[in-house]
Write a structure and sequence with these properties.
Layout lengths: L1 H10 L13 H14 L1 H16 L8 E10 L8 E3 L4 E11 L4 E8 L4 H12 L8 E4 L6 H4 L5 E4 L15 H11 L13 H23 L1
Parallel strand pairs: 1-5, 5-6
Antiparallel strand pairs: 1-3, 2-3, 3-4
Length: 221
């Protein structure tokens, strides 16, 4: 079942195009829907993050993280969406909180019209239960302000551009979350948000993270 779900995710195909070597598409989708609604992908991701950190010789629960968002277009499938005036994208926004090695800790999806500082508040609050030892989060200037700083007990450190910067430049800490977005976008299902519901979009994000973490752990064997 997982291989069938990963095939849809990686190939960006419709459920009805699932090859015959997998169980019937109705069965695979039914299990996907059950695991999505039960939060199984988030649970697997959580355990893999801790296992991966321990294999790398670090504490299972991180004390620092990096936060950023990515706006992506949607299709005519419908579902909640909005217009991001800054990126000029009509669709949804993916908010990610990753550790300093790029492992996804908490992932949220919401309409692209939601401002970064507004989307950061529920993201930070959601991180307190699974990762209670996070003390500091690095973010860009879009998260500056009292609203984000007062959202939780986590200290927000803004990594700003250099005054004389021209063009693209790699910023300390922030590049880790940008790399995470680049990694998950290798899955064609995530190149554009085609899901009709926020739950399905979030489940596929966590499934993509599970694939990444599994491969990272396997390479350490």
């Amino acid at each position: 079942m997982l291989n069938g779900i990963f095939y849809v995710l990686r190939g960006g195909i419709q459920w009805r195009m699932l090859p015959d070597c997998f169980p019937p598409r109705q069965t695979v989708y039914r299990w996907f829907a059950a695991w999505r609604d039960g939060g199984l992908f988030e649970t697997i991701n959580h355990h893999l993050v801790m296992a991966g950190r321990e294999r790398a010789g670090r504490e299972a629960s991180p004390s620092a993280a990096v936060m950023d968002s990515q706006s992506t277009k949607t299709t005519e499938a419908g579902g909640p969406r909005g217009y991001d005036a800054g990126k000029k994208v009509n669709g949804r926004k993916r908010h990610a909180l990753v550790d300093t090695d790029g492992r996804a800790l908490v992932l949220h999806v919401h309409p692209a019209s939601v401002q970064d500082r507004d989307g950061a508040v529920p993201l930070l609050k959601a991180s307190r239960s699974p990762f209670p030892f996070i003390e500091r989060v690095f973010a860009d200037s879009a998260y500056a302000g009292d609203r984000v700083a007062d959202a939780s007990s986590i200290a927000i450190e803004i990594v700003r551009k250099k005054p004389d910067q021209v063009g693209f430049a790699v910023h300390p800490r922030r590049w880790v979350v940008e790399r995470f977005f680049a990694w998950i976008n290798r899955n064609r299902r995530l190149a554009k948000d085609v899901e009709a519901t926020i739950k399905s979009a979030s489940a596929f994000l966590y499934a993509a993270s599970v694939m990444l973490l599994t491969r990272r752990i396997a390479r350490c064997e």
